[in-house]
Amino acid sequence: MTERTNTPSAPLRREAAVWIARLHSPERNASVDAGLRDWLNESPEHRAAFEKANELWESASRVPASLVPRSPPIRHRISRASNFMKLAFAMTFVALVGTLSVLMYRDGSVSTDVGEQRILTLEDGSRISLNTATRLTIDYDRHARRVRLTAGEALFEVAKRADWPFVVTASDRTITALGTAFVVRRDQQDLAVTLVEGKIAVDVVRPVAPAAVLKIATPGQRVTYSAGASARVEQLNIDHATAWKRGQVVLESTPLSDAIAEMNRYSTLRLSLDSEPADHVRISGVFRAGDSLLFARAIAETYHLTVSEQEGAIVLSGVPSL
Asked: What mean pLDDT is reported for the chain?
């Protein structure tokens, strides 16, 4: 499974900003245009960065003047004034790109489709890896870095800023970290938080008791919240918990119906089970995320079940045997 970044890297954004400044400079010429074409042809990422920079240029007129960084004073010889004016112009827009990027994150939503993954690098250096069918909203301000996970699963690798807490809200819980890595998964009924490294604190959005905060300091520890049940804490293998980053689904003695549900997260080709006896079969192994047909055939061969392919669906049926 391939990963694609939702936002061009910071170095590429800066390069694109310089090209935009050159295009709008009074001394634009054929050489500038040719250089830009060569730069754009280097990779799709270059073209994406240029498109983003161009959008920000068009949006610049809507940014309050107080947010636009001032150009440094030019104290160089008159004979080189035009070159330094162009440089200052480019530097101003490069800084403006950073300012506008932060503003865009404040009310920006990010999502992935079924079977898709993305890696998002934020302006503070934090990274968010989104798993399949995930939706989240980023809201940064001077007081906190806030993210709301409305569906799916994401790995948060937080840049350490003791004065700027990183808070993830999912369902009725908040997860706070100053510098750490953790996975949050939100399903219809359950919310699971897994610590990869560092420390986190899990709290309810509106605490009803002072003891509501749960602190997690052991890597691999996962706490699961289910409707109408107490929090469940267990220890996981971190490599298994983050296997989706490698395009894998790791199952450990998982009931077949739950294994099918897990595989269905990664594909629009739906798996179903038409066999009550087979639901008692427990599955262990490493499978390729999104390859539902290969999974079904492997299970059918192992337990002597039948695989039938229908339009947009794969059905496992029969009575299992070893």
From this structure: 80
Q: What is the 3-state secondary structure (H, E, C) of 253-307?
A: EEEHHHHHHHHHCCCCCEEEEECCHHHHCEEEEEEECCCHHHHHHHHHHHHCCEE
Cβ count near 183 (within 10 Å): 22
Mean pLDDT by 10 residues, the chain (322 residues): 52 77 72 81 83 65 42 39 47 50 56 90 88 94 93 95 92 88 93 95 73 84 87 93 94 95 95 90 94 94 92 91 78
**C-alpha to C-alpha distance for 87 and 128, rounded to whole angstroms:** 33
* CA 85 and chain centroid, separation: 39
CB neighbour list of residue 186: distance below 8 Å, 6 or more residues apart = 149, 150, 151, 152, 153, 170, 171
123 and 211 assigned to the same domain: yes
Q: Is the pTM of this model over 0.90?
A: no
Residue 242 is assigned to a structural domain of this protein: no
3-state secondary structure of 309: strand
Asked if 254 and 221 sit in the same domain, the reply is no
CATH number for 274: 3.55.50.30
Same domain assignment for residues 25 and 128: no
- Distance between CA atoms of residues 72 and 85, nearest Å: 10
**What CATH number has the domain bearing residue 171?**
2.60.120.1440
Please give the residue range of the domain that contains residue 195: 108-237
pLDDT at residue 165, rounded to an integer: 93
Domain count along the chain: 3
